[in-house]
Amino acid sequence: MKKLLILIAAAIFVAGSVMPVMAQDKAEWGFYGSARMWTAWEMKDKDTPAGLLGTPGILKFDDDDLNWGLQSNSRIGANVKFGDVGGRFEYGHGANVTTRLIYGTWNFGPGTLLVGQDYTPLFFPVSDQCGFGGGDCGLIFWGAVYTGRVPQLKLTMGGLKIGLMQPNATTVVPGTDIDTTLPEIEASYTFNMGPAAIMIGGAYKTIDNRIITPAGAERDYGIDSWLLNAAARMNFGPFYVNFSLAYGENIANYGITADIATAVKSAAYVAATDSIEDAENLMAALVLGFRLSDALKLEAGVGYVSGEIDLAPGVTREDTTMSYYLQLAWSPAKNVFIIPEFGIIDYGEREVTGLADVDQGKATWLGIKWQINF
User: Fold this and answer.
1) Closest Cα partner for 137 from 331, 374, 319, 367?
2) Could you tell me which residues come within 8 angstroms of residue 262 by beta carbon, excluding any fewer than 6 positions away?
3) pLDDT tens string 281-330
């Protein structure tokens, strides 16, 4: 009996010594979710360009529709921390369940290494726009820079972010061969200065494109796409001003989201000169807001995207898209948001040297976003 009591005491002592260690090794999990509905009346002109706004081709009629559904960016996920190692996963709603984010992080002292799928270093939100179709567009189709959530290696050291991303494999001539020798490269630096945060950054990608010319010859071309971006969020008491300004070449070849025709945001082969022509792109967004109270916020914004490319010697095409919105964000309870919004997208005119300008129509929406975070 005495031996049994000694064994039990020893077991209790060992368990008491091990359990604090086990508790220290336990990861911390923080789950979260967000349900979002978009209820809106949306109107598209019959001249809406093919491929824009989800339109497969030019419409035969003006199209007015009720949009009443769960937003594709509704989500559920978790943040995980395990000492200097952490991670996150997030799944979203769509036609199928989609992986929005999944990455691990290692804080090694001077900085943090991220491995996995995340927002890229140029991600710097400036707008709370709901947008046509819902989805919290944030003017990213119409002037704000967005390069997606992509697999990457990312290093963060203070305000500096450097990322090496999975290349977006976009051909210049359909059906031809492309080779990538480098990942997409992004870098940004954010200055936090009290009521203002200012970000400057850039992106670069290069591909080798092999094509067969109309004459049957085989050609190899190196095609670069790049972007320079400056953005800021500034608070002045209850007022705030946000903006983004970017200039680049061949932004569609990089994978940058912009609601203009593919023809003016991608490099193109010009048979007349047997050469590759680059598209020149300018993007801008300006947002003004006023916080009426802790529960009410008024916001208005305008976005601008343009593209220009030489189609042949002496022949240039230029397209411009602009978007405007006004919203009132109401939070009647913590983590509950009801946001009425009115907006317009104007696709302007397709301007080609020597041809009459062609109106490309517009789209309008009046809707309400309903969001509950949990």
Assistant:
1) 367
2) 51, 252
3) 999 999 999 999 999 999 999 999 999 999 999 999 999 999 999 999 99
Give which of 327, 142, 162 is closest to 246, Cα–Cα: 142
Residues 338, 3 contacting (CB under 8 angstroms): no
User: Structural domains in the chain?
Assistant: 56-373 (2.40.160)
The DSSP letter of residue 94 is S
CB atoms within 10 A of CB 173: 18
3-state secondary structure of 84: coil
pTM to 2 decimal places: 0.88
Q: For the stretch 69-108, what's the b/e string if a residue is b when 16 or more beta carbons lie within 10 angstroms of its beta carbon?
A: eebbbbbbbeebeeeeebbbbbbbbeeeeeebbbbebeee
Nearest Cα residue to 350 out of 359, 339, 341: 359
- Listed in sequence order, the residues at least 6 apart from 204 whose beta carbon sits closer than 8 Å to its beta carbon are 184, 185, 186, 224, 225, 226
Contact status, residue 201 vs residue 121, Cβ threshold 8 Å: yes
Identity of the amino acid at 17: S
Instruction: Check: CB of residue 322 under 8 Å from CB of residue 23.
Output: no
**CA neighbor of 182 nearest in space, from 285, 254, 257:** 254
* Rounded-to-integer distance, Cα 290 and Cα 238, Å: 6
Digit-coded pLDDT (tens) for 318-331: 999 999 999 999 99
32, 52, 133, 143 from 41: Cα distances, Å: 30, 18, 10, 23
User: Is 227 within 8 Å of 201 (Cβ atoms)?
Assistant: no
Which DSSP state fits 54? G
Do 42 and 55 contact (CB within 8 A), yes or no? no
Q: Are 259 and 345 in contact (CB under 8 A)?
A: yes
Give the amino acid at 260.
I
CA 48 to CA 97: how far, in whole Å? Answer: 30
Round to whole Å and give the CA distance between 291 and 296.
6
